[in-house]
Amino acid sequence: MSNLLTRRLALLAQPEHRPVLGGLRGIERETLRVDASGHLAATPHPVAMGSALTHPQITTDYAETLLEFITPAEADIGTTLAKLDGIHRYAYSKLGDELLWSQSMPAQLPGEEDIEIAWYGTSNMGTLKHVYRRGLALRYGKAMQCIAGIHYNYSLDERLWRVLAEHEGNAKRLSPKSFQSEAYLATIRNFRRYSWLLMYLFGASPVLSSGFLRGRPHKLETLSDDTLYLPYATSLRMSDLGYQNDAQSGLSPHENCLDSYVAALTKAVNQPYEPYAELGTKRDGEWIQLSTNVLQIENEYYSTIRPKRVIQTGERPIQALCARGVQYIEVRCMDVDPFEPVGISVQTGRFLDAFLLFCALEESPAISPEEGLRHTDNFARTVKEGRRPGLTLNSDDGAISLQAWGQQLLERIRPVAALLDAQRGDTVHADAMAQQAAKLLDADLTPSAKVLAALRANGKSFAAFGLAQSKQHAAYFRSHAPDAGEAAYFDGLAATSLAEQAEMEAAPQSSFDDYVAAYRASNLCHSSTDCD
């Protein structure tokens, strides 16, 4: 452990500081609606679930059939997952014969023209969300809009940052807002250093449907007629086969300070990209993308982790960060766990909490461009061949085996898990650590290995495996229908959301062209501050 981590753990272990070890955990889980044979559902978003535009917990993301379930932020990941379970059970009460797909990589997909882009109604805001997704389809293809993941939203108690600032002499140098933002960016830098470990431990997409690549060149191997794979892959979703393109390849906003991060994204949403410029923003009078810039909006930047701030009505994400600083981080690299009905286990959540707190408390120097490339390479190696025997990664001290480095990291994280357990009075974080340590000793225990083993035992078809898991999860949720109180709660959210959308559509609106112009011209942050 570094001296800084040792000092911070000792500080936070003091009885008067134990209360600041809290924070909030929220999950966004994406999942495709499919029919009973595993094909993409051809139906619109179920109106019984409410409005995809205004519902706080049930919406769509990219494709019309890609549901997104959003939990409230809770103090304990166990509570968060209980809420996520409740959303799933309610959704199944409205799905009819349809199923929720159990995998990150999509089911058997129809032709591009038959994949519907998410629709949010006729208000300007709803149309903006739809046109943005038209632009994504243009830039990445519609098959990419059917990939699902788990987003893990994580924040620490704001009092914790104040305790650290006071004891480390930063309270006079930096405002609380600035110290907190710097601390979250330091957390993100450590995440960049070590997130390859998450891909080894939790990656669950070593295979994909042969039709997914739409003829794109690849170096995958054939497992069966309908299934491609890499024998040692952990997460093809997070590889270069996932949501990436040439326009974003040169975009890497470094996270050494908030001003630098904001400036890079501000430039990307204002910088034209020639291939997009050739397409224009309209075709036959219809909007096809919001702009011809590198990014249409800042959320198009597909990072494995993002600094975040809850936005106010009409505000853009960068504006919120600039005005009020970083409030939480969003971890975006987690695959859907196909063996868990809600897509993630509580043990995974416990480990993530210990891992992210370690990233927050450990020394985190600025990352040079060269170091950034090394982190990117370690991540890329792990997602494509993380289970390869003898695989080496590049640490600060040179080449090291993935297993050896992983074990070193777990040793450094262990005291953090112990601190969390001491606060709770149990051993749930230590137990989660032990579960991950076993995977480093035996790669067959990883989710990616378990997926491949299940396929090899049952005909080697990704589609068949995904459908079997989806049906198994459906049986669980349908046998645990929401009780009257839960059903009334979600019915109320659905009714309110539909009324809010109707009110927005009935209100006087400017022309959509003017609305987009105002949105694009909204005051993004421009800073001359430099950081190393």
From TrEMBL:
Query: What EC number(s) would the UniProt record show?
Result: 6.3.2.2
Keywords (A to Z) from UniProt? ATP-binding, Glutathione biosynthesis, Ligase, Nucleotide-binding
Annotated Glutamate--cysteine ligase domain residues: 11-380
* Database matches in SUPFAM superfamilies: Glutamine synthetase/guanido kinase
Q: In which pathway does it act?
A: Sulfur metabolism; glutathione biosynthesis; glutathione from L-cysteine and L-glutamate: step 1/2
Annotated Pfam families = Glu_cys_ligase (PF04262)
Q: Does the keyword Nucleotide-binding apply?
A: yes
Query: What are the record's GO terms for cellular component?
Result: cytosol
> Which organism encodes this protein?
Rugamonas rivuli
Q: Which residues form the signal peptide?
A: none
State the reactions this protein catalyses. Answer: L-cysteine + L-glutamate + ATP = gamma-L-glutamyl-L-cysteine + ADP + phosphate + H(+)
**Name of the protein described by the UniProt record:** Glutamate--cysteine ligase
Q: Which HAMAP family match?
A: Glu_cys_ligase
What family is it from? Belongs to the glutamate--cysteine ligase type 1 family. Type 1 subfamily.
User: Could you give a single Gene Ontology term from the biological process aspect?
Assistant: glutathione biosynthetic process
InterPro entries, per the entry: Gln_synth/guanido_kin_cat_dom, Glu_cys_ligase, Glut_cys_ligase
What molecular function does GO assign, one term?
Answer: glutamate-cysteine ligase activity
